[in-house]
TrEMBL record:
Lineage, uppermost ranks: Bacteria, Bacillati, Actinomycetota, Actinomycetes, Kitasatosporales
Name of this chain's protein: P1 family peptidase
PANTHER family listed in its UniProt record: BLR5678 PROTEIN, D-AMINOPEPTIDASE
Residue intervals passing through the bilayer: none
Protein family membership: Belongs to the peptidase S58 family.
Top-rank taxon: Bacteria
Amino acid sequence: MTADALTDVAGLRVGHATRTGGGWLTGTTVVLAPEGGAVAAVDVRGGGPGTKETDALDPRNLVQRAEAIVLTGGSAYGLDAASGVMAWLEERGRGVRVGPDPAHVVPVVPAACVFDLGRGGDFRARPDAATGRAAVEAAAASEHGGPVPQGCVGAGTGAVAGQLKGGIGTASTVLESGITVAALVVANAAGSVTDPETGVLYGELFQGRVRHPEPEVHEAALRRLARTAERNGVPPLNTTLAVVATDAGLSKAQAQKLAGTAHDGIARAVRPVHLLSDGDTVFTLATGARPLDAANPLALNEVLAAGADLVTRAIVRAVRAAAPVDGPGGAWPSYGELYGEH
């Protein structure tokens, strides 16, 4: 029995810290690798990224493994959440050893942020080191292979997908080779996730699971969205983040290739994508429990294809799981509120 989530990659755990009310609508999500870390890479396609430690993941550079990945709200301010995760890891002696004492470590904790400033009403209500610590503690306390909460939690708390409420989504699959591939996405796109002519989610068009809303339902949804757009004013900055993970044994270069092709999964579910106002970033983690078939130079292909497909499915799940928000920072209906469970 699988959770159909990132945690189906054995050893990975996910924790959320969520802040709502009193001007807050934000949070942080941490993907915690097994002790000793996992091979990690990144690919950044958006024109306005906010990241930390991504250069360390370049295959040409020294660092091979990351202990955790931080996804956070709060724009660049929220990157401070990674400090709380680093402190937690340091206390446990987890990180790159840099001195004679086993406690002399530097944890490698790449991070990326989404823009959600002011969506709860208070521009200064954003994640910090304490939020990051709370998220990594939640990950450490979670059950191995357990379910991952989706929707308006963690880094997806204040997420917006076009004019709809966004959030966190996750999905996984086991390939014929026995390799597990999974994705976790923070859907916070500037582009739309719905076809303007029908209201169908782009990601569901790609998946072939299309149930068209009734025309009158779609027309009512468009009227509602027009009203909320007028109230909200200028569209805010955005960013879609993803972590694609596998138990395959990948090099850093192979992991970077996986991060790059996984962006195709965003492009299938969001249009337009990778704009100047987006900071779209995909991380990859490979635990190495299952070696690729060394006799087949194209063995990586099935992992690459699955990564992109799972990102699309995770975006659909994020939008489907999101709850509407109507508060001092703005109003964002949910897809379910507008279109139901068609």
